[in-house]
């Protein structure tokens, strides 16, 4: 049987390349202002976005170096060399001290923006964890504990950010409030959220927030989050309400999406079609429990196989995992593991599930896997080693399973983030 792994990887790589800052950023950058360009970046693509902005302003437009300043806070291992913009590597998905300091310095730089300065805010997925600025009365450790509880709850990213925005001095429009003396606040964002909601990308630091403290409290109750009393008091304090439409902070603020998950899924679809597959495009906005979505997709694949069709099933979006075990992994690995269990008797089906940022769950290291692949060799190794996928699913331990089969997807940091890419090839 033909090895489909090179094609699966090429489809994943095409999706990533379509959203790389070097490809998508420069055409959206504003002309040189009268004063300075103050660049504030956050997220897994922040380092690459800052470097691309530097190249455009310093090399293409010839801006004097002293008129470009900034700070880019990104995940550990996702930094790139920069000349004028300071790159800080910080914790993700659980924030750390570097993110705390980076957020404080970011807010201070925003406050220094004057009426001739352009405040250029560059956002990508991961910014919510990278910019950590707890509201008064909340300790850093307590904010970290909230993040851990949210990550284990199974809540979609938008709901997680609703809670985080109301415990932050930078999220929910507050960065725009800090920088409102600038001539213009321009935010350029790479979307990593279903439906591309600006208030959800990096928790919307420069846009109005439609969610409320009451919404945050309702989510705490729904997911039965165990929070310390200080956190509950903060969610009861009207002073911690996020910025709403009509706030003066947004009078000179502009927001533009420069890359979306759909563009990346479209690039993946094109490659699959060029390879001769009939494509079922399930869209770029899928949400849901990883193993349940895998079951739906396995049914589609088996149906196509029964009909003798050569099909590529593609989807994006961001799946979730309700953690009940103590293993290692993330939504893409769990999706692939559930597929392996459901498709183990079908050697003519191969699949890949990967996060476009290069990390799926994990411990916040640059070497974390992005996801996993499965095919006939996976099924053979499962049988030879006596591996039972369900046992690993029960412990949320997909990483250990795929380490044993040798099927982890390990691209390393990709320097962008447009959510997940999932591909199933049916011969």
Describe this structure in words.
The chain is an alpha/beta fold. 38% of the residues lie in helices and 16% in strands. The protein has helices spanning 5-17, 21-24, 46-60, 97-111, 127-130, 140-153, 157-165, 174-178, 213-222, 229-236, 261-274, 290-306, 331-342, 376-385, 389-394, 398-405; strands at residues 37-42, 68-75, 85-90, 118-123, 184-190, 253-259, 278-281, 311-315, 349-355, 371-374, 408-409, 420-426. β7, α12 and β8 form a beta-alpha-beta unit. α7 (157-165) packs across α9, α12 (290-306) packs parallel to α13 and α13 packs across α16 (398-405). The radius of gyration is 22 Å and the shape is globular. The termini are close together.
Number of E-state strands: 12
Low-confidence stretches: none
CATH superfamily of the largest domain: MOFRL domain
- Please tell me what the overall shape is: globular
- Overall pLDDT confidence: 95
Q: List the domain count as a whole number.
A: 2
Q: Note the run of SSEs as H and E.
A: HHEHEEHEHHHHEHHEHEHEHEEHHHEE
What secondary-structure arrangement, pairings included, does this model have?
Elements: H1 5-17, H2 21-24, E1 37-42, H3 46-60, E2 68-75, E3 85-90, H4 97-111, E4 118-123, H5 127-130, H6 140-153, H7 157-165, H8 174-178, E5 184-190, H9 213-222, H10 229-236, E6 253-259, H11 261-274, E7 278-281, H12 290-306, E8 311-315, H13 331-342, E9 349-355, E10 371-374, H14 376-385, H15 389-394, H16 398-405, E11 408-409, E12 420-426
Helix pairs in contact: 1-11, 7-9, 12-13, 13-16
């Amino acid at each position: 049987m033909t090895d489909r792994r090179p094609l699966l990887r090429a489809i994943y790589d095409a999706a990533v390349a379509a959203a790389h800052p070097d490809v998508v950023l420069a055409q959206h950058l504003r002309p040189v202002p009268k004063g300075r360009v103050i660049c504030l970046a956050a997220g897994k693509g922040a380092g690459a976005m800052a470097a691309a902005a530097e190249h455009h302003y310093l090399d293409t437009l010839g801006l004097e170096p002293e008129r470009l300043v900034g700070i880019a806070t990104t995940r550990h291992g996702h930094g790139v060399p920069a000349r004028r913009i300071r790159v800080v590597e910080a914790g993700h998905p659980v924030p750390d001290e570097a993110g705390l300091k980076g957020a404080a310095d970011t807010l201070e730089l925003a406050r220094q923006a004057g009426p001739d300065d352009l405040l250029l805010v560059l956002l990508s997925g991961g910014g919510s964890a990278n910019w950590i600025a707890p509201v008064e009365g909340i300790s850093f450790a307590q904010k970290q504990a909230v993040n851990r509880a949210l990550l284990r709850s199974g809540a979609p990213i938008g709901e997680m950010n609703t809670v985080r925005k109301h415990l932050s001095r930078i999220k929910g429009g507050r960065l725009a409030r800090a920088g409102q003396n600038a001539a213009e606040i321009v935010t350029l964002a790479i979307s990593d959220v279903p439906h591309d909601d600006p208030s959800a990308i990096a928790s919307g630091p420069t846009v109005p927030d439609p969610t409320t403290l009451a919404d945050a409290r309702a989510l705490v109750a729904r997911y039965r989050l165990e929070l310390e009393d200080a956190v509950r008091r903060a969610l009861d304090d009207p002073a911690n309400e996020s910025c709403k439409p009509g706030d003066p902070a947004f009078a000179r603020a502009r927001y533009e999406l420069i890359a979306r998950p759909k563009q990346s899924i479209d690039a993946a679809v094109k490659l699959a079609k060029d390879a001769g597959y009939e494509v079922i495009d399930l869209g770029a906005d899928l949400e849901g429990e990883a193993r349940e979505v895998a079951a739906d997709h396995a049914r589609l694949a088996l149906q196509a196989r029964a009909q003798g069709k050569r099909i590529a099933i593609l989807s994006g979006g961001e799946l979730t995992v309700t953690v009940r075990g103590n293993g290692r992994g993330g939504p893409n690995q769990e999706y692939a593991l559930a597929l392996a269990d459901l498709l183990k008797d079908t050697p003519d089906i191969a699949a890949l599930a990967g996060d476009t940022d290069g990390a799926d769950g994990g411990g916040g290291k640059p070497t974390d896997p992005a996801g996993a692949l499965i095919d006939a060799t996976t099924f053979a190794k499962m049988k030879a080693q006596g591996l039972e996928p369900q046992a690993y699913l029960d412990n949320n331990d997909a990483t250990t399973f795929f380490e044993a089969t040798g099927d982890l997807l390990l691209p390393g940091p990709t320097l962008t983030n447009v959510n997940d890419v999932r591909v199933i090839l049916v011969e």
